[in-house]
Amino acid sequence: xxxxxxxxxxxxxxxxxxxxxxxxxxxxxxxxxxxxxxxxxxxxxxxxxxxxxxxxxxxxxxxxxxxxxxxxxxxxxxxxxxxxxxxxxxxxxxxxxxxxxxxxxxxxxxxxxxxxxxxxxxxxxxxxxxxxxxxxxxxxxxxxxxxxxxxxxxxxxxxxxxxxxxxxxxxxxxxxxxxxxxxxxxxxxxxxxxxxxxxxxxxxxxxxxxxxxxxxxxxxxxxxxxxxxxxxxxxxxxxxxxxxxxxxxxxxxx
Length: 254
Fold this sequence. Notes:
Elements lengths: L5 E3 L33 H15 L8 E4 L1 H8 L3 H13 L3 E4 L3 E4 L4 H25 L2 H9 L13 H18 L3 H21 L5 H17 L3 H22 L5
Helix pairs in contact: 1-3, 2-3, 4-6, 4-7, 4-9, 5-8, 6-7, 8-9
């Protein structure tokens, strides 16, 4: 890791232009951020804001390191550095950032092995969620899954790839949410945040777009039929298919 491959989480990380007049030694690019509402916990607000920024970044398309500037973030938030430091510590415990002594705090990119393990764990949770949906979900809830994909009928899938990527993510979140199991939902929440970042990168690779829509429609049909075994198997195999794809093609993770 060196100065040439490192950038500060900032305007540059979010695609904004750097502030003019800075020299090479102070290449700090700031991003627009709202001051924190003092009616709520400073730490919680800083944590939520930082996590949202990290998740929204396409971290697997850019191999340069992304450093968080604690002092600058505190200044932009309009708070002291302590709650920002506490928020970073929580994000580190959740695996989103890492602290490097005498260098700073950096956004984490998972290794291929770590991503495959995350997906495998997700497959177990989501397949159980599918089982629970067939047993307890309202018909209207399952119908709402089918409506998500109306935009992408008649060959319009690739023309709306970015939009489909977001619907794809919402589909999997909905499967978990519709399980109605609060423990399962809590377990899946942090895991899915990591999954969201890698799904954004992989959805456009190889033939995953076309296979994704076919898999989703098959899953919906099994849920509508209340076919518990088939729904559970389809959801698990769909997730593990992503794990196989990462194992074969995601060399950028190494």
